[in-house]
Amino acid sequence: MAQIRVADSAGFCFGVDRAVKLCYKALEQNKAVATLGPIIHNQNVVDDLTRKGARIIQDVSELKPGECVVIRSHGVSADVYQKLECLGNPYVDATCPFVAKIHRIVEKHTQQGDFVLIAGDRTHPEVEAIVGHCKGNCFVFEDERALNLFFQKKLWRSYKKLAIVAQTTYNILVWDKCLGLLPKDDPNIMVYDTICHATQVRQSDADKLSRQSDLMVVVGGRHSSNTVKLFHVCNQNCTTYHIENSDELYTLDLRNAEKIGITAGASTPAHIIKEVQQTMTEIMENNNLEEDINFEEALDQSFKKIHTGERVKGTICSLNNTEAIVDIGTKHTGYVPLSELTDDPGKKPEDVVSIGDELDLIVTKINDQEGIVTLSKKKVDEIKGFEEIVKAYEEKTVLEGTVSAVVKGGVIIRYAGVRVFIPASQSGLPRGAEMDSLVKTTQRFIILEVNEHRRRAVGSIKAVIKAEKDAAREAFWETAEVGKTYKGEVKSLTSYGAFVDLGGIDGMVHISELSWKRIKHPSEVVNVGDYIEVYIKDLDRENNRISLGYKKAEDNPWEKFKATYHVGDVVTATIVSITPFGAFAQIMDGVDGLIHISQLADRRVENVKDVVSIGDKVDVKIIDIDIENKRISISMRALLDDQDDEFEGEDEE
């Protein structure tokens, strides 16, 4: 009785799936779309895209005016981007993030004067693109023999260092052999593990399955590099067939195989794998190989077999305080512990999911003896979240998340299940500030670096703050003009004035502009955190300085004085300061008059303090007003003279 098993990792990988989705999206958003070469090495998908309006070109010179071009997951050389900028055509960059990472590595090393070795097929578009990001100084080798020859010639010794990368779909078995040829403990040789993790898993699964099978069927495009490598991996262990679609199954001899394995390349959609399943069942039935076994059900069951690390769908059946019970379509009972539902210990399962919800889950533990499988929702969220992180890294998108913890050297932001490390230098806080102040706050950040294997990322809050301030500053200078009013927050105080945030840019209110009264410190009028209305007095774009005013013309006490008092008026004033030449007395808030020493009494005064003290209230006569220079002369003596005149008049009578 034949057994049919399907490799756990068969089908679309992240990069290919992303490229295909971007192409379909481009067709929805643009009138004309072209792909730079086939979007993936799968004729069925390419034919469908062609039917929907996408045409295939081999060079950007073939583009029509305004036509949107999609760069496939294999990537392109640096000069292609330059040509696109010159042409002005819109483009969608669907380069696989893992391929783009190799571009950055080789570009950096060749710019530094290092030599780069590239493991791969020199005619493959991915390798051609990688070479196109090198600034010379590179060599492509196909296998361990070519690498050994390279080292024998010692071609790289004249360069600073040697960096080694591999095509993302390179054969992991050959890669291991190549690594064994490298000189040991040489600090000038740097090896980068750039084989896509999904490729490694797919090849490893295929190798394992083919060792346990009599026959393997590899499904995928004839020109798909990763599919061809799957064929070579499997063919070393058992009879292996490479097919593109289910029609080719009719040409195969499946009768003598008791154990059949199926795997598929990264460019093979799930529906084609399913078609292969259905067609294989029909062939088995027609050849009377059924033997009371429904091969379709057997194959379906092989798809349903669960393994640790596998992604499955489950429906919530019931909930309690510690876990969710899930039906995953097998004989197992699935459990999702609260810790695998959410990071928030204050929540219960019912706060996160509801009965009847269908979830994507990952298997973390299987107990076949008890029929129990433990599952995780968080791990799926993390995978989805990391895909968002990679996309945000590529597109420099600003993300938003909550700071969950302080760690050595910085803080952690949890975004969509992914731990994003924010170094202290990128936190936006001053050097030496307490990181605890950020915990539980919502922050906007960008991704500076990603680690695909550990699903970790490094981000920056500081970069967002700076970008927003720069944008606010530019916006401010575009519209700013003398006299314009703003409402701003007082950010800091100094002995000479107050600094006010006008929305990303600070201006200063000099102490003399805070009040019409004499004040010793800005804190007598405003405090940090106050929102005040200010107006622009002066602008210095070259030095990025903004002078602000706060006191209002209508509150000018000199205008009130001018309208109320005149020369000859008698008023009561308060002595506010004493000098060797006289005393200043406050007539009203913000307006002082000078009583010259000669106007203090009708006799000679040697010391002002012999006549008045600070705080004394005295009656004075206004004898002169100079509004322009804000000077008022007042006199106590004049009142005494007036009294003498009155007495003289009485004596004459």
* Order of the strands making up the biggest sheet: 13-14-15-17-16
State the end-to-end CA separation.
Answer: 149 Å
Low-confidence sequence ranges: 288-299
Task: Please report the total strand number as a whole number.
Answer: 32
Summed over residues and divided by their number, the pLDDT gives a mean of 85
Radius of gyration, in angstroms, nearest whole number? 41 Å
Secondary structure tally, helices: 16
Give the fraction of residues assigned to helices.
Answer: 25-40%
| Classification by helices and strands | alpha/beta
Largest sheet, strands/sense/barrel: 5 strands, mixed, barrel
Q: Strand-residue fraction?
A: 25-35%
Shape: elongated
Describe the structure.
The structure is a single chain. It contains 16 helices and 32 strands. A hairpin with a 3-residue loop joins strand 13 (311-319) and strand 14 (323-327). Helix 4 packs parallel to helix 5 (125-131) and helix 8 runs parallel beside helix 9 (225-235). The chain is elongated and about 140 Å long. Mean pLDDT is 85; it is low at 288-299.
Features:
about 650 residues, 32 strands, five-stranded mixed barrel, single chain, alpha/beta
Summarize the helices and strands and which ones pair or pack:
Layout: E1 3-6, H1 14-29, E2 33-36, H2 43-51, E3 54-57, E4 68-71, H3 78-87, E5 91-93, H4 97-111, E6 115-119, H5 125-131, E7 138-141, H6 144-153, E8 162-166, H7 172-179, E9 189-191, H8 197-211, E10 215-219, H9 225-235, E11 239-243, E12 259-264, H10 270-286, H11 295-304, E13 311-319, E14 323-327, E15 333-337, H12 349-352, E16 358-367, E17 372-376, H13 378-395, E18 399-407, E19 410-415, E20 418-423, E21 442-451, E22 456-460, H14 462-479, E23 485-494, E24 497-501, E25 506-510, E26 531-540, E27 545-549, H15 557-564, E28 570-579, E29 582-588, E30 591-596, E31 617-626, E32 631-635, H16 637-652
Parallel strand pairs: 1-12, 2-3, 2-4, 4-5, 6-7, 6-8, 8-9, 10-11, 10-12, 15-17, 20-22, 25-27
Antiparallel strand pairs: 13-14, 13-16, 14-15, 16-17, 18-19, 18-21, 19-20, 21-22, 23-24, 23-26, 24-25, 26-27, 28-29, 28-31, 29-30, 31-32
Helix pairs in contact: 4-5, 6-7, 8-9, 10-11
